[in-house]
Amino acid sequence: MRYDDSTGATTGDAYPGGPDIPDEGAASVDHVIDIALAQFAEQGFQDTKLDHIARDSGMSKRMIHYHFGDKKGLYRRCLVEAFSLIHPSHEALTVDTGVPVEGVTQLVDAVYLKMVENPSAIRILALESLHDVLHVTELSTLANHSEVLLHLDKLLMIGQDAGAFRPGISAEDLFLMIWSLAFFRVSNRDIMVNLFDIDTTDEENTEGMRRMTVDAVLAFLTSNVAGSGRSSYLSGSRAFDETQSAADIYGAEDIGDGA
After folding, report:
1. 251 pLDDT band (50/70/90 cuts)?
2. How many domains does the chain have?
3. Which PANTHER family match (predicted)?
């Protein structure tokens, strides 16, 4: 069986030289992924049993092995799905405004609210970060958030060109802030309840943390902090050279309509 690194999908015969096993259909496979993702997110990789996934999904262990190879193959496919679930749609990322502050607010909302809608995706990704079931080099092929970064880059450069945003901030810096708060809401919920009797996942606090995330990002962008001469707070950033303007990269016509 061969695995597609970008999707986690499998192709080819699971048993070379053996008979073909009929495909049970995409819906059945998707259902197994949904069940497995929920169980991996709740119990972690080690404590999740294929027997339980087979029982709850209605797909035999033999067919699970056929579609995913083994438990780690299924887990890897669940991570791919988790990244997909928290990635905003193209429509949500296409900001129709030429005002950088409004555009950043809309993008922060789009990323944060997508994470709010998919807490199991947050949990499985947080557990993977802690337990490192898969190697980092493998994980690098699982997700592609370049569209989010591209839109953030564009708004950053428009705002920096206009003097609305300070220099020295990259899209990755903003992404880190958004993810940190969104992940904390789910992964540290029990600790916050224990320490402060605050449920970060209830409706009121979910909205409060959304506003906190937007305000934190905007304050970070507009504060009067002396520039460091760097293009980002993070090393290894693929941020654009600060000497380039938004018009240089995207074209004046794109900047004008805010597309």
Report:
1. low
2. 2
3. HTH-TYPE TRANSCRIPTIONAL REPRESSOR SCO4008, TRANSCRIPTIONAL REPRESSOR
